[in-house]
Amino acid sequence: MKGLKNSTLVWRLIVLAFAMVCGVYICSICLKQISTGSRIGFLDINVIQKPCPEPNIEPWEIPYVHYPNPKTYSR
């Protein structure tokens, strides 16, 4: 019976070591993903207050195009 108890203890230690190695590997992958997101930063995008071009309207007609103000809400 002594040999059987020693072998179960060895197997338990092997499984524990394997679980620890897998845990460290998974945590290192998670830390890499978190650190790459913080290195990228934000892009500098300049927003220009310019309306979208009107489709199917000639350039000389643009000053004469009029859109009525809505009555249901104010802008």
Set down the secondary structure blueprint.
Elements lengths: L1 H39 L35
Rounded to the nearest angstrom, the radius of gyration is 34 Å
Into which percent range does the helicity of residues fall?
A: 40-55%
SSE string, helix = H, strand = E?
Answer: H
Largest sheet: none
Count of alpha and pi helical runs: 1
Number of distinct beta strands: 0
State the low-pLDDT regions, or none: none
What separation lies between the terminal Cα atoms? 86 Å
Which word captures the global form? rod-shaped
* Structural class designation: mainly alpha
Give average pLDDT, whole number.
Answer: 76
Estimate the strand proportion: under 5%
Description:
The chain is mainly α and 75 residues long. It has a domain at 2-47. It has one helix at 2-40. The longest helix is centred in the first third of the chain and has 39 residues, at 2-40. The protein is rod-shaped, with a radius of gyration of 34 Å. The mean pLDDT is 76.
Keywords:
75 residues; mainly alpha; 1 helix
